[in-house]
Write a structure and sequence with these properties.
Radius of gyration: 18 Å
Structural class: mainly beta
Shape: globular
Order of helices and strands: EEEEEEEEEEEEEEHEEEEH
Number of helices: 2
Strand content: over 45%
Number of strands: 18
Helix content: under 10%
């Protein structure tokens, strides 16, 4: 299956963020929130998987553009479960975002679970204007409970007039996942990129999580645990040490 989806939000003359373009394609379904938000100048859109995906052979891509001064929260509503398919080869999911001057994007999908025999590639690419803000979270789960995981390569790439972050993680090889240099035997890995105003002056770390300022701006929080809930709480604790955490 090949699917392409697109979302564009812009700021209207009243200072509110409105959805200007939204094109869904199975299994990528975009659903705007119709209720009142805590921040009236923000738009909330949910990303819903309309069918079982991704399967082996699937090629999925979502493009998101946040216009000048616009603010978007893009959330998932259910975990992504990467499964083997009848077609040869693995699956691929690309999320490419662009945030213009004065805009912000919070990209908060639910965890990605890599099931046995699946081969999946997940790519997140962001291009930020000089004062644009980004918060992007990723949680990777190695297999369902009691299941040996498939293979996953996840890449995070963030640019602002040049590269801020380029990170690739490959999981699913037991001899690597059990290494202290990789996952230390834990089955859930979380990462959260924060390009949101000032960064912490120094790295902060506690058992199984850390928050590290990046060399060219932005910060990266990482966490390891045996379940996705614990990883989520650890990323929340790490984010509390970021100077911009009060805005989330």
């Amino acid at each position: 299956m090949r699917a392409r989806a697109r979302l564009v939000v812009e700021r209207d003359p009243n200072g509110r963020t409105s959805v200007r373009e939204m094109r869904s394609a199975v299994p990528l379904k975009l659903v705007p929130h119709r209720g009142r938000l805590r921040r009236a100048d923000h738009a909330l859109v949910h990303l819903v998987s309309a069918t079982t995906a991704p399967l082996g052979g699937d090629d999925l891509a979502l493009t998101v553009r946040v216009g000048p001064g616009a603010h978007l929260v893009l959330r998932g509503v259910a975990a992504t479960v990467a499964l083997p398919g009848h077609r040869p080869g693995g699956s691929r999911a690309l999320v490419r975002v662009e945030v213009a001057e004065g805009g912000s994007l919070q990209y908060l999908p639910e965890p990605t679970v890599v099931t046995a025999r699946a081969r999946h590639e997940a790519v997140f690419e962001a291009e930020l204007a000089g004062d644009a803000r980004l918060r992007a979270r990723e949680v990777l789960v190695l297999g369902r409970v009691g299941e040996r995981p498939g293979h996953l390569v996840s890449t995070l790439s963030v640019r602002r007039g040049g590269p801020l972050l380029r990170q690739s993680v490959s999981v699913g090889a037991p001899e690597v996942d059990s290494s202290p240099a990789c996952l230390a035997g834990r089955r859930v890995l979380g990462a959260e990129v924060l390009c949101w105003g000032h960064d912490p002056a120094e790295p902060v770390s506690r058992p199984w999580w850390s928050l590290v300022p990046l060399a060219r701006g932005g910060s990266l929080a990482t966490a390891l645990a045996d379940d996705a809930v614990t990883v989520g709480h650890a990323l929340d604790r790490a984010r509390q040490h970021h100077p911009g955490s009060g805005e989330f």
